[in-house]
């Protein structure tokens, strides 16, 4: 198949004069074949990972994509069954109690093109005997205990029945997948995206958006979907959904809470409406040397007509201009019609008070070339026809003085300048704010924070400043990523508990069909503007049209580490309004529990570096992560000789709790847990996240006595 695609690409890349197809057709086929070549290349690792042997003697191999060979009589022979096909489902759901016609399930482990291991599981009594005693969980345990590589692996070969049910759920709207650390939420969400692209082919036209908490996380999961043969996917953080916005400011917690609250949508809408002037007196303007007066009633009427269209501010502005200019043109035409003039512009006498013409007027007009209605020779004569009126309206719009007056009444807006002006003087913009809220929101112009991005997006929707991108070159993912107006077929939201109410509004705009997979854990909410309950963030958009499912088995985190993490949360009460936390059950143990070391503040970087060096030596393969509050990062980076910008593919990675979300490492060392706890009212959640990133060992280096909830961890010398 690769050879065939390569041959076709070579033919399509030939000079245009040698090609048979029109340019447009050739370009489209070239793009399609290029994507297919990339997919065939991406599934190389672990292309075939399973086999099902059924009671009737048949066998089928399971893989990351479907492969077929033309058979006799036009029937295709299945060489490899796509893992998403209905016939492949028993590979994930068959059990000894309910074998679903499967005699043996085989998991195949490969390295490049060599088979390195087989894991057989017998599901029916007919297979007993010489083959009995083979363990069915070997592949799963090997996967969860293997050293981390710095990139997330797919779990297509080791999906468990609980996970498979969620991936193949027929929920058409929003599916919320909740589960504690290590339950595979991210993997389930990504595999569900791949499954939906396979089973709902219409999604390929609009693609899937995957939203994650950080660029580090996006890079970490970046190989999963391509490895499953899917490329109609855009992966981004919320801030990256507005191309061209650079986040270079950090807001304090109180500011993030205010900016993230849904009430900001109402505040922004009111601020945009307030930019339209409502004059109380006449508006004076000049046109071709004539003084014109626009009555307040006419302005208010034009505003009402424009707003009834439901168009965003800048588009409604055009309607407003049309209405105002139309009123002015009618006034000028009426003035012209009220005075009958001859060729030299002199008024003709003999007219009546209602504008009707006398005999002298009619004779003069006929002599000047005007046509008088023969059925009503005494009636008014129309001096300006519709062509003239249209030209007059155009001249009014082109008149600088008129344009300036219209701009004063209904100015053209852009999101950036509007938001900067509002935040420069929030007390003036929103008089109902408290003094503390004004202080939290007020800032000097220049630069944006992550919390500003949903506000800019809201303003763009209110103002109508975003223009759809052209069709452009490149694949769907490239076009969608560059277009802030792109509407996706499905949206996956990972670490969804971190999103503010305003961020949710931003995502819903990008998926009007409300087809979403939302995964998260309320016990891990660290952002002060994040979710306390799913109903609060989803209810305003979906009411009750969403489904909640839970993952309950923790495959990643050893039981000893999870027990310590649970003790930490028990020692720190959940903030008021937080939802019920879901506990997960760890299925594996490392034998040795976490440890802690006490040190002085000045010695913390050196001590952490020494402990990390010891752990790295003891680790045969994998990664070590140091997780610390932001204030500690510069000194720790110097002591560890690592960059401050995290790179998960390095042997040692330095992260803040915020950037650690969704990641996993073989060994985790937490520096200064007390500072993590004190950083926000949800500091306990951040520390909980940090503790549950480890797949093997966890160490904690604290200054002074251990914080509440950590004293039970054995102290190391």
Word description of this protein:
Helix 1 (2-12) runs antiparallel to helix 2 (23-42), helix 11 (296-308) crosses helix 12 and helix 21 (501-509) runs parallel beside helix 22. The strands form six sheets. The chain has a six-stranded mixed sheet, with no helix packed on it. The protein has a six-stranded parallel sheet with strand order 9-8-14-15-7-16, sandwiched between helices. The longest helix is centred in the middle third of the chain and has 26 residues, at 313-338. The radius of gyration is 34 Å and the shape is globular. It contains 28 helices and 23 strands. The protein has 717 residues and is an alpha/beta fold.
In short:
By secondary structure, the protein is of the alpha/beta class. Helix content is about 40%, strand content about 15%.
Question: CA-to-CA gap between the ends?
Answer: 60 Å
**Rg calc:** 34 Å
Strand order of the largest sheet: 3-4-2-1-5-6
Broad structural category = alpha/beta
Q: Considering DSSP H and I runs of 4 or more, what fraction of the residues is helical?
A: 25-40%
Low-pLDDT segments: 127-135, 349-353
Q: Note the beta-strand portion.
A: 15-25%
The general outline is globular
Count of runs of 4 or more consecutive helical residues: 28
Name the average pLDDT.
Answer: 86
Largest sheet: 6 strands, mixed
Tell me how many strands there are.
23
